[in-house]
Amino acid sequence: xxxxxxxxxxxxxxxxxxxxxxxxxxxxxxxxxxxxxxxxxxxxxxxxxxxxxxxxxxxxxxxxxxxxxxxxxxxxxxxxxxxxxxxxxxxxxxxxxxxxxxxxxxxxxxxxxxxxxxxxxxxxxxxxxxxxxxxxxxxxxxxxxxxxxxxxxxxxxxxxxxxxxxxxxxxxxxxxxxxxxxxxxxxxxxxxxxxxxxxxxxxxxxxxxxxxxxxxxxxxxxxxxxxxxxxxxxxxxxxxxxxxxxxxxxxxxxxxxxxxxxxxxxxxxxxxxxxxxxxxxxxxxxxxxxxxxxxxxxxxxxxxxxxxxxxxxxxxxxxxxxxxxxxxxxxxxxx
Length: 335
Description:
about 60% helix; Hypothetical protein af1432; HD/PDEase_dom
């Protein structure tokens, strides 16, 4: 495939990749980014995403998003934007599939808990890179290209005050797509849960983005494509939304953080999740020998906190709850 004739100038060409930390022979059929995508999809960490919470923990319905379905929606949105602009979809897909692979159980609550427990803090984007570099394949890592790791590392955050722009346009697309996906599908899940009505969304946001799930995503995807193409035509090699649309997305995201992610409605459930994670973490800090071999080896090389953090961060919601029950809940009474 001659990528140069397919993609726009400024797209990431496979032949120009910075490469991998460990040099390896090129695949006869797949580009380096296709190889990365396949390695991520076939990883154990990727499969665990199906049992990691997006927002709603242990819901009874089948239609709530998990961390895996969120990842698939990010991939779909980012590939649509990438195709519309003329970028490398293989690179986009690899970044999208790996962007949340280091996320903790119990969604925002889990990340918040680990961030409070770990001396230097915890960020899921940094953990995602760590998983791919040195935890997968029993500590050998997947030897992913620098462009994919960079896009994953810089997908998080949405502030212009931080220098957090991915080195490729493809990575920048995934960052926007992540926000487009989760803000809108979390609205959908919150309406399904009965704790939010679409009429609660500020009218000025509805006026710009649309009143339905489909309308909002369509507005944001189209705006991202056309505004980025306009940027490139002006010599600004950057992915972005136009002024009013970008402000509306930021305001909608703020609304969700204040009312759903960090609001009072889910506070009790968030506190329960944090209680579980705190206690499981503290147990393993005191009982290193109870962890699998990989994490005990990390403790020997990098310290107790690092090994326990890697173990806890890799747990799915179900696994973490099982660990909590096994450690703290009595199985029978001895007289």
